[in-house]
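TL;DR need structure tokens for one chain.
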Amino acid sequence: MKIAIVCYPTFGGSGVVATELGMALARLGHEIHFITYSQPVRLALLEKNIYYHEVDVPEYPLFKHQPYDLALSSKLVDTIKAYQIELLHVHYAIPHAYAGYMAKKMLKEEGIFIPMITTLHGTDITLVGSHPFYRTAVTFSINKSDRVTAVSKNLRDTTYAMFDIQKEIEVIPNFIDIQRYIEKAKEPCDRTLMALQSEIIFTHVSNFRAVKRVEDIVEIFARVNEHHPSVLIMVGEGPERIKAERLAKQKGVYDKVKFLGNSVEIDKVLCMSDIFLLPSSEESFGLAALEAMANKTAVISSNAGGLPEVNIHEHTGYVCEVGDVEQMSAYALKLAQDSDLLHTMKTNALESARRFDLPEIVPIYERLYESAYASRHQNQD
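>> reply
TL;DR here they are.
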């Protein structure tokens, strides 16, 4: 099948999942066309059956903010016609589903009927979608999609609660390629590059937005470090990094915290890690936690959104109330001081991550594509 995938090309979870899905589908023989404003960070263009089409947004003095949705819808129409695309899969309701619907309408005028699947990832619902300016457009875009999926049960339920949705939302969780992690585990992993052998290595990976509560991470680490020698590795960039650095200096642990910025070698960092911290106030799924688990890392997280569906309390790590730094610190210290317990949870984390293995999830999408394509002439209003 010829499939167009629209996503954000950044380090965020939705872009990573969309890219990994497209590459997995290409390996299964599908022809995949990524359409976005820059090359997705994880996209391997040298792989067979993969194409990338850049959306160019011309700048005109008339526009204060350039209309990306218009440029995207036009690019979708041109690409779908040029390559005989059979199905459109958009990740994020706004602006992607909105632009996708406009492309469908324009194509229909030429007798081309293409089904559109919309995958909801989280902030398109809880953050952008909840804003009064966008609520109507989000509702419209979801209801005009031929199929709708959400990456967790919590996100599905939240979407139904927040919007007047007339469509069935199917839960298809995010995924990872376990085999890739198994192969990487065979490569050398030198912990001494980051820490002494006696030190516990904590990690955090995110875009450092306010919802990630990175100051909580520094606070948790500082409390643990008082009782057990540790190192904290912070991977990512974002508006909250300055606050995290400032707090680390105030707590006297700045020399024990390593801010690495954005990195394409996250697996090399996680292979050294003992405990992954994710105290987010919002997390539709928790892909970063899943990737840590696949790297055999215990997780201490909040109970926000879909995190409890990924991180199993007292099995793969611990789940706490959002903002409960004291309890998270206590659990972190417990793991740091009990090597047997830490080893058990790290082992459990890898085994539990297998629930979300790529070969388990991708066929679900393929069946959804087949169903949507079979009924492509329906709901073309």
